[in-house]
Amino acid sequence: MRNILAMILAGGRGERLYPLTRDRAKPAVPFGAIYRIIDFTLSNCINSNIRKIYILTQYKSISLERHIKLGWNILPPILGEFIGLIPAQQRINEQWYQGTADAIYQNIYTLQEERPELVLILSGDHIYKMNYQEMVKFHYEKRADLTIAAIRMDRRYSKEFGVIEIDKEWRIIGFQEKPEEPKTIPGDPEAILASMGVYSFKTEILVKRLIEDARSDSTHDFGRDIIPSMIEKDNVYAFDFIQADPSGVGYWRDVGTIDAYFEANMDLVSVTPKLNLYDPKWPILTYHPPYPPAKTVHDEKGRVGTAINSIISNGCIISGGSVRRSVLSPRVNIHSYAEVEDSILLDGVDIGRNAKVRRTIIDKGVKIPEGFIVGYDLDKDAKIFTVTSSGIVVVPKWIRL
Q1: How far apart are CA 367 and CA 225, in angstroms?
Q2: Residue 73 half-sphere exposure, CB side, CA atoms within 13 Å?
């Protein structure tokens, strides 16, 4: 594993997650109360014993860079281990990254410096647990030039992912990028094999294909250009993600939309969540500020500080209000007689007395005034906030109520 270099793509705009991405990159969006989205990919690397990691940034990267410097300065450079940030630099030309493949191509000098045997190209904006060692083992066994992690999904999601077609040996014989009419899994016309955006490349082949693509008139994207071009001339295989999931449940989420982000957070408050954050054998690492323990106060008729089926972070105070099926990030205050249900409250949110919040995401530092109601009248909410088609309300952090 010491001959493997991981390159994490963390420069996407995250437009479908707006307004949560107005001031931050998608990988830096808070998730699961105390984490950032990128923490899951980085934790997978550390737990898989991959210790040479570059993070490629581009848009609105300040909060992401701050988080990495505060929470991920954990590897000893003296041993050749590192987590390095590489901002977009226009090193090769005067354009920013034109696609996922171009992002790697514009940083091809790092491959020449490190000279790894394999390059893992990962996305910094997915929620999952994966032991990359299992994929690397499969890659070597198949003598592959490229291995793509794959997951079984319902065909209705085909327009959101690359769809893989394989033979009985799991060799890829076809690839469609976000097709309307996908190739389904043989014997199951309602299922597809979707690319997870997790790639293992033989370095020599990767460099050749990137140079070829850079000289062509393409979109310079792995899914649209590099992968389809490699299928006919290289050894390209799919790897079943289930084999590498330490929990064995195959949980993987692309939280690229507000609805997907909301649902993935709500997954965590179920009685037995598929994504287990409490597994000591596979810890999810992050930066932990020195906040005091959470507490609930007041126990009198009609005024009881309670939290049921919820995640409560350090620094939270539930003061005579009620919280149900919600995710509370650090330093959230719930004042007396307030009600919070099925919601996600980010760092420093303050819910005033008698306020009511339902099916709402509230960004950092927002103060909900006394008696304010959000999530109950969507037509009214839509005049002020972002409201998704499924009825999720997003209160942005710059708003003053």
Answers
A1: 47
A2: 6
The SS3 assignment for 267 reads: helix
The pLDDT tens digits for 170-196 are 999 999 999 989 999 988 889 999 999
Nearest to 171 by CA among 241, 239, 227: 239
**Which DSSP category does 369 fall into?**
P
Burial class of 142 by CB neighbour count within 10 A (0 to 12, 13 to 18, 19+): middle
Classified as helix, coil or strand, 334 is strand
What's the whole-model pTM score?
Answer: 0.94
Quote the CA–CA distance of 303 and 298 in Å, as a whole number.
Answer: 6
Domains recognised in the chain with CATH numbers: 4-256 (3.90.550.10), 295-395 (2.160.10.10)
Check whether the bond before 19 is cis (ω within 30° of 0): yes
Residues 6 or more apart whose CB falls under 8 angstroms from that of 272 comprise none
Per-residue pLDDT reduced to its tens digit, 226-270 = 999 999 899 999 999 999 998 888 899 999 899 999 999 999 999
The rounded radius of gyration (Å) of the Cα atoms in the chain is 22
